[in-house]
């Protein structure tokens, strides 16, 4: 099973509550950029788990323009300061019951970093930029393997180079 953990896009700094902060225009653009890149690697998500906060819901709306999801759930276990071990248990339960191939989680810092650490005990909690996505491969009985973490400013296209790699300039 592949688990994709995504931080929401850039949000406005002020709203009446943290839960009501929407994405900025830049946040929508960076989410679209990441979704287009991610669509080259995954055709669809069997299950999508989304924080109920506005910015996370909007992030899923943008991602779903490029990658469909079969079942979407909005989970209180995905708010920013939720317990990562409880959230990891929820994800593992979905993995056991459904035999999903690709699962997407959209949430917030610091939870997304701690969630990676909880699912992959040999990995320290990474820092996610807005719209950052981590991929974890989960094998039954072996725990999670942290594959990568990419953000909208660091992603590299998945296309062949038009020139050969050079060993030296001299």
Automatic annotation (TrEMBL):
Keywords: Hydrolase. It comes from the Bacteria. SMART domains: PGAM. SUPFAM superfamilies: Phosphoglycerate mutase-like (SSF53254). It holds the Pfam family His_Phos_1. CDD domains: HP_PGM_like (cd07067). This is Phosphohistidine phosphatase SixA. It comes from Oceanimonas smirnovii.
